[in-house]
Amino acid sequence: MIPKEFERYFYDVKFKELDIHKDKNYIIGRVLDQGTLKDFKEIKKLFSDKEIIDTIIHSSEISRRTAYFFKNYFNISNPISCLTRQSTPEQKMLWPY
């Protein structure tokens, strides 16, 4: 069950409809990105380190700051999606003036 205290982080969805198993990556990412140290401790009780690390590695929704913090915390050596270069090429100048 998702702790009631986490409801404040899910202002854009219906909190009661979140499923702890189906939406685990969304829940972990949002709480890591916006939560407190107390919230992180709660996430560690709900999910394994492997699940948390997988979310950090594959999420493009967490901030770069959060990704760097948890990369160091968990000593992650794999590339992290939100820290890699964007796949779209830089746009060329429209007017050369």
Description:
This protein has 97 residues and is mainly α. It has one domain (4-83). Helix content is 42%, strand content 0%. The protein has four helices and no strands. It has helices spanning 24-34, 37-46, 49-58, 64-73. α1 packs across α3. The longest helix is centred in the first third of the chain and has 11 residues, at 24-34. The radius of gyration is 16 Å and the shape is globular. The N and C termini lie far apart (59 Å).
Keyword list:
single chain; 97 residues; mainly alpha; 4 helices; globular
Quick summary of this structure?
The chain is mostly helical and 97 residues long. It has four helices and no strands.
Q: In this structure, how is the largest beta sheet organized?
A: none
Radius of gyration: 16 Å
Tally of separate helices = 4
- What kind of assembly state do the chains in view correspond to? single chain
List unreliable stretches of 5+ residues: none
Q: What amount of the residues lies in strands? A: under 5%
Number of domains: 1
The total of beta strands comes to 0
What is the straight-line distance between the termini? 59 Å
Helix content: 40-55%
Give the CA-based shape.
Answer: globular
Can you give the mean pLDDT? 90
Strand and helix order = HHHH
Structural class: mainly alpha
